[in-house]
Amino acid sequence: MDPSTDPFSPENVVVIASGPLTGTGVPLGSRYEVITKSPLNGTLTSANSGGVFGWKMKKAGFDAIVITGKSETPVYLLLTDGDAEIMDATPYWGMKTGEATDAIIRDLGDAGARISCIGPADEKLSRIACVINEKTRAAGRGGIGAVRGSKNLKAIAATGTQIIAEADEERFNSVKEDFRKKITENGIDQALHHYGTAVLVNIINENYILPTKNFQSAHFTEADKISGEEIAKTILKKPKGCYACIVQCGRLTEVDGVTSEGPEYESEWAFGADCGVSDVKNITKANYLCNDLGLDTISTGATIACLMEMAEKG
Ligand code: SF4
What we know:
The chain has eleven helices and 13 strands. It is of the alpha+beta class. A hairpin with a 2-residue loop joins strand 5 (about 75-80) and strand 6. The site of iron/sulfur cluster (SF4) has 10 residues, from loops.
């Protein structure tokens, strides 16, 4: 690609790729990447997400997808057992990620389909927009979702039954067992399982490196109120994991009668310490809203924190 390519031009390329271990059952082997030229920083950017979409993309017969050009009208890409079909997404344009995901699955009549989707923020080309799969897992950074919005690509639906086979099953299983042992013997898996990635809040705060009040400080006196331990005591329904993961660091939470996922450590510092906010429920609500709209929680929280400091300083 020409390095001078405008990120929002049809010439920009978006690559969506799984890794060699994705979907093989190796612990933590669930991830996929979205790679493109970022409209936020103007350079090559990748964002990474878990959940089950990466596994499902492989089950649909695809290790990687390379997208170029631009559709005149909203479309989505349907991947089924080695075939790729471009489908009309006009009915879903304007929908939040959760609504669009439910509607596409309903219209396909395939409850097993998994959807990587963009929201209204991406459609409006917000440079801090992200890609969301399974309604709550984000490939968050660099405005990569806005590039999908610029191509009118609302979603990718993956469905299929292909077998992800190993070349040498015996050797593969022995390496897999080795990985599993290393993770469980380390102990960090238990901390992540019980308290999620927000277990880092107190640890990082105690080391005076927690982004606080738009990075004006590195220590938040109310950090314990936004910590993983506090989430576990107040809003956690249960830990949740990506495909075949034994750690299960995801958080299924409930706030004011709404059940969804989050917050992760990054959303806690961005909407919490960095904005001087110590109410874990409000942080979680902001996280849910970002997932629905297709906004990266880190960039959104950090932008609000910056605005707060600018307002304070006139
Ligand atoms: S549940 Fe957590 S540790 Fe496991 S793959 Fe997902 S993000 Fe990684």
